[in-house]
Amino acid sequence: NAGVMQNPRHLVRRRGQEARLRCSPMKGHSHVYWYRQLPEEGLKFMVYLQKENIIDESGMPKERFSAEFPKEGPSILRIQQVVRGDSAAYFCASSPDRFLEKLFFGSGTQLSVL
Amino acid sequence: GQQLNQSPQSMFIQEGEDVSMNCTSSSIFNTWLWYKQDPGEGPVLLIALYKAGELTSNGRLTAQFGITRKDSFLNISASIPSDVGIYFCAGQLKTSGSRLTFGEGTQLTVNP
Question: What pLDDT does residue A32 have?
Answer without folding.
Answer: 96
